Prior knowledge:
By secondary structure, the protein is α+β, with helices and mostly antiparallel strands. The protein has helices spanning 3-16, 23-35, 42-52, 58-70, 113-123, 139-150; strands at 40-41, 74-77, 85-88, 94-98, 104-107, 134-136. The chain has 6 helices and 6 strands, in the order ααβααββββαβα. Helix 1 (3-16) crosses helix 2 (23-35) and helix 2 (23-35) packs across helix 3.
Amino acid sequence: MAPADRVEAILAKIRARGGRATDARRATIGVLLNTGQTHLSAEDIVSQVKIQQPEVAESTIYRNLTALEELGVVEHVHLGHGPSTYHLTEDGHQHLLCERCGKVIEVPDETFTPLAAQLAETYGFQIHPRHFAMMGLCRSCQRRRRSAARIPAVADH
Ligand SMILES: [Zn+2]
Ligand SMILES: [Zn+2]
Ligand SMILES: [Zn+2]
């Protein structure tokens, strides 16, 4: 689907759920579509929407983000200690975050299905893994750690 059509489809979803499809909301969705898989904070989104629509108040853009989340078209994810970042719900995926270098690896939702089933069965707990990134070490940081362990006490710089 062309990006403009995707924006229209999302606006149609908003209207169907009783939300208003304003120009500022259209611009917010456009920003999230254009930036695709990068992870924008609310602040990043506000500044990009402001470039397109300087007349819209920042507070309105923040409020829109919350409203779009309540309407189920936008969701946020916490990537480590930084500010939460935003996605279109339809781009949903899960995140693995390297604690050492900050690299984010996106993995399909199904990756967590066996764990979700096991936790539901054993503890009756329903996990929402899309809300937080899974923390750990990426492949190259593990390699670096292993080779560092083999070298006896070199000066740290
Ligand atoms: Zn992502
Ligand atoms: Zn890493
Ligand atoms: Zn949250």
